Amino acid sequence: WDQGVRPWSPGDMMLFFEMLSMIRIERKAEVVDIGIISAEDTVFNAGTESREDCRLDPLSLLRICPCPGSVFQFNSRKEFSRFWDMNSGRYDVFPSLNGDVPESLDPRVCIVRMEEFFKRNGYLPSLRIGSRDISWAHNFFLENLAEGCFPVVVSLDQPKKSASSAPAVDIRVWRDFLDRCRAEFPEVIFIVVGPEEGLRGSANALMAKDFGTSIMDDMALMRAALMYMGVSSRNNALLWCSDTPYVILQDRSFADYQGAGSYQFRFASKCQKMFSASALMTPEFLRDGFKAVYDGIDREKWVTAARQWARRRNSLPSEILYKKALSYKSN
Questions:
Q1: Which residues are within 8 A (CB) of 216 and not within 5 positions of it... i.e. 6 or more apart?
Q2: CA distances from 124 to 43, 137, 181, 201, 268 (A)
Q3: What is the mean pLDDT of each successive set of 10 residues along the chain, which is 331 residues long?
Q4: Where in the chain does DSSP place strands (E)?
Q5: Burial level of 210, CB count in 10 A (0-12/13-18/19+)?
Q6: Model's pTM, two decimal places?
Q7: From CA 182, how far away is CA 203, in angstroms rounded?
Q8: CA dist., res. 174 & res. 178, Å (int)
Q9: Coil, strand or helix: which one is 301?
């Protein structure tokens, strides 16, 4: 990862890690070592999608890579070249150094690779959110939502780089949508992750950052929620490779899919839908897209899983405790 070519951002890192995971499986590599080329003392020069905790903890996002080995930091391309001259026989390298694969990251190319992998293998490797973080997220929902309520995580965080190509979020439309959901779906509580303040004060919304969440906490909430709603952002790659139901709106990246109404990646489930940027964002449109996915979710199954695995930061989920008890009994 050459920071001079591809500035850091969480969304780009997710796509990069997904590409590495697929390559590792297809090439039967033992492990993936990651080389970071960056200027001195600026390991993480925050990209437009970055959050404060990323700037303070530049390597925290490496936790989501399913196949990490060693991580090397190089202060220059020249320093990396010396390392490569001494170790090239040990590695395949991605992106290639001969220019066959661009070092810039085009999400459309990544999607094509993901669909090709899915066609050959019938699955996609998931980005890693550890069981400890997922269990914490389930506990967060159970502790902060009333009995019988269901969490839908919302992210309206758009990268500034995409401002010219993606329509801006109209907060008034989203507030009206939440008001309608309060009447029609009173059991749904929207958990807002990211810096968006426009939904603060909505009776059926909680701001995750009010609870001191980090970016890894926000990712766990996105993955563990009953459902996710968001606007076009590379951060959504976390959900593309998961079974979490989602509705992603205002997308302009994947024209091959776009037509009237919703569309899906070929590896998506029936409860994972995307909507083109050409669709007019109105409260009614948001409501219809939400309902189309929400009605297809087995909500009781989600509740069972949440109760089974919920735990606080420094405790163990009930099923793990039960297995430990059986182990002690057998011994």
A1: 60, 61, 63, 64, 129, 133
A2: 30, 23, 33, 38, 10
A3: 78 86 90 82 44 50 80 89 91 76 72 90 88 92 94 80 58 94 96 85 93 88 94 79 88 55 78 82 93 95 92 58 46 43
A4: 32-37, 68-74, 150-155, 188-193, 205-207, 227-231, 246-251, 262-263, 272-276
A5: exposed
A6: 0.80
A7: 8
A8: 6
A9: helix
